[in-house]
Each structure stands twice: as structure tokens, then as C-alpha cells.
Amino acid sequence: MKKLLTASLLIALALAGGCDKSSPGSTTASGDSDDDSKGALVARIDKHGEEIMAGTTKAEARDWMKQPKHVFFKADPKQVAQFVEDFYQAGATQVLIADIEEHDGVQYGESLLVVLPKDPAARAKTFQVGARADTAFDDEPVSDQGQKYLFNGLD
């Protein structure tokens, strides 16, 4: 069930990211502005973040990545490790490998969940790292709208 939910969320995030290429603040054919669609994306990320936090398919990123049988489907482990360190240095409260699946004794990390700090300066730095991670992992960029989490798909 969680696998289906995760797949559905990732598909929804991918579709949301590719559906609207108009300029910021412009109105789409449905009458929604880009700001509204970004707000919806942030709401979906926070909702999925809460589900991850309540579930068991997560682990602290630094600890999880130390194990040789903990891998990623497509993401470069060195790149992920660097982003984990960058998020922590920027002030992230917690960085998790999330949506972990196990196959034949090997755990696959499917996403990165960053718990955002409350301090405005640390948030700004964390969002700067998040912008680079969004580009590296081909995710829809988000701005600070008071959300709790940043999310990057790693597969």
C-alpha cells in the first residue's frame, strides 16, 4: 500500500513539474496562477513528509548511507552524501533517506526528506541548498512558503 502511495505521489510530482512551463505569476488555461500550483506542490510535499515521519520506511541519512547494502536506484551516492552534508551545514534540523524499499537483503533509498529549521537565516541557506538539489535531481523547485519539509526524489 505504501509503495503504491509513494509511486502515486512521485507520479503526481512529476506531472505537476512538467505541466506548466509559463512564466512566474502568469495564469494557466485553468485560471490558476503558478503561485497557486507551487502552493499545492508545497502542500503535497508537507503531507508526504508527515506520512514519511509517521512511517517506518525512513532513516537518518548519514547513518543509513554508511551501510554497504544501502543503495539508490539511480542517484550517485557521493552526490547524495554531499547534499546531506550541505543541508546539515545550512541548518537543516534533520535529513532523512525516505521511502526505503528492501529487495533481496538490499535497501534502496528512493527519496531525501529535509526537515526545515525555524530560524529564518538557516531556512534561507537550506533553501539555497534545496535549489541546487532540485536541479541535480530534476525536481520541481520550491520557495519558502512556511513549509516543514523539502523533498527530493532519488530514483
List the helices and strands and how they pair.
Blueprint: H1 2-19, H2 34-54, E1 58-60, H3 61-65, E2 70-72, H4 77-90, E3 94-98, E4 101-103, E5 106-109, E6 111-115, H5 120-136, E7 149-153
Parallel strand pairs: 2-5
Antiparallel strand pairs: 1-3, 3-6, 4-5, 6-7
Overall strand count: 7
Low-confidence stretches: 1-32
- Count of the separate structural domains: 1
| Radius of gyration, CA atoms, in whole angstroms | 15 Å
- Provide mean pLDDT, rounded: 83
**SSE order in H/E notation?**
HHEHEHEEEEHE
Portion in beta strands: 15-25%
Structure commentary:
The chain has 155 residues and is α+β, with helices and mostly antiparallel strands. The chain has one domain (2-18, 30-153). The protein contains five helices and seven strands. It has helices spanning 2-19, 34-54, 61-65, 77-90, 120-136; strands spanning 58-60, 70-72, 94-98, 101-103, 106-109, 111-115, 149-153. The strands form two sheets. It has a four-stranded antiparallel beta sheet, with helices on both faces. Strands 2-5-4 form a three-stranded mixed beta sheet, with no helix packed on it. Strand 4 and strand 5 form a beta hairpin. Helix 1 (2-19) packs antiparallel against helix 2 (34-54) and helix 4 (77-90) packs antiparallel against helix 5. The chain is globular and about 40 Å long. Residues 1-32 have low confidence and may be disordered.
Give a brief outline of the structure.
This protein has 155 residues and is α+β, with helices and mostly antiparallel strands. The chain is built from five helices and seven strands, in the order H-H-E-H-E-H-E-E-E-E-H-E.
